[in-house]
Amino acid sequence: MSRIKTFNLPDLGEGLTEGEILTWLVKVGDTIELNQPIVEVETAKAAVEIPAKWAGQVQAIHHPEGTTVEVGTPIIAIDTDPGAGPLDVPSTTATPDDDLPTPSAASLAAVELAPAEGMVEPGLIGGPAPGGRTAVLVGYGPRTTAAKRRPRRGGVPAQPAAVAAPAPVLPVAQPAVAPAPAPASNGQRAAVVLAKPPVRKLAKDLGVDLGTLTGSGPLGSITREDVQQAANGTVAAAEPVAVTSAATSAASFGADREQRIPVKGVRKLTAENMSRSAFTAPHVTEFLTVDVTRAMKALDRLRGRREWRDVRVSPLLLVAKAVLLAVKRHPMVNSTWAGDEIVVKEYVNLGIAAATERGLIVPNVKDAGRLSLRELADALNDLVQTAKSGRTSPADMSGGTLTITNVGVFGVDTGTPILPPGESAILAFGAVREMPWVHKGKVKARQVTTLGLSFDHRIIDGELGSKFLRDIGDFLADPEAALLAWT
Q1: What is the Cα–Cα distance from 407 to 413, expressed in whole angstroms?
Q2: What is the pTM assigned to this prediction?
Q3: With pLDDT > 70 as the criterion, what percentage of the chain qualifies?
Q4: Could you give the percent of the chain with pLDDT greater than 90?
Q5: Of these residues, 62, 330, 439, 457, which one is catalytic?
Q6: How far apart are CA 464 and CA 113, in angstroms?
Q7: Total Cβ atoms within 10 A of residue 458
Q8: Would you call 457 a catalytic residue per the annotation?
Q9: What is the average pLDDT across 372-385?
Q10: What is the C-alpha separation between 68 and 49, in angstroms, rounded?
Q11: pLDDT at res. 89
Q12: CB crowding 178-215: b at 16 or more within 10 Å, else e
């Protein structure tokens, strides 16, 4: 039995198919124990630490941090019996470009001219690689079209790389037989650009035009350092320098002033869920402005009680309690559309929308309707702190039945929230502001908020939605009276 065990990215549940490697908690050569956390992976729902399936020594890490890999892909190799002696395997540690010796003239065959439009060079992304593989970026599939090789001058056909022996090195083309460069737009002949494929990719990612650089490598080839210095603005452009015209000095509106952010992880899942919900469930939103002065005073009295002094009490606590009591009075609100039937749930998994550095997540308090006010306060505080620390698990974000989004923390009065998939109602809680309000026949400064309730009109009609929202408002207007009347 082989000592080397390959650890594949496991299925983290909830139908997830891929994950992004955030942080490696071990490195090659480390000795690890069974169930020791070895890597932190971000899925579409949460960032989780994955433990090791075997004890032993890390032999290889197959994907760097920031790489998105599919479930079932090998990510690390572990020697389960490192004490049995050295392994007769080639080193898996790549040598950085900075540590490479100065290449000889023969090795400059690796420095290729820019391929013609539409062609894919061997070793480039989408082109053939040694062993019959196809070179691809992690997370991207190979192209379905066959890779093409530009014929070399002199009629020498391109030879496939051998598996057991290095490929023969062709002599460096002399300037007399170099391909003629394409004429530049200004009538001058464009200079031949010598750069390795990784350097070309780096230049493309950083938005650097290789044609404007003077290479510091062998035979004037452009190195990674040249590209990085150009990106940082610490290197002068290659000669000759074109005269800047009034048109080119004007403000540009191209890719150099745009930022492209990959859609992945939480943002990708949120986009999919919101699009599916918005175009599946017919949304209706109603609004209600409420005088919550008595509720704010009740919170102040609650904070002053001895048994509540170590608990963080916020207006969200009373809103959550109001929602739970209103659900008991109108249970149809806590339901799901299931095609040919409506599933009314006798439990409330109360979701709280939370904005985190990873994006919007909606963890939920399980069976919140059975909790006392103090238990509900503790559960809400734990939920918020866990979300802020980025440790919310996928299980904490599944199974929600009804959601509150507290847009008031951003100073917003209210909104028209979109339903989380599978839920029939979501409440937006706006900012509490001091405003003029008619109270007992006189205009006084009172604390006022606006509630926005979105609901699935297939399940909740206007009457039911209005009654549910009114009951939430009645509780917030006078919590003590509502508790006496409803419980």
Answers
A1: 7
A2: 0.55
A3: 72
A4: 38
A5: 457
A6: 71
A7: 12
A8: yes
A9: 93
A10: 15
A11: 52
A12: eeeeeeeeeeeeebebbbbbebbebbeeeebebbebeb
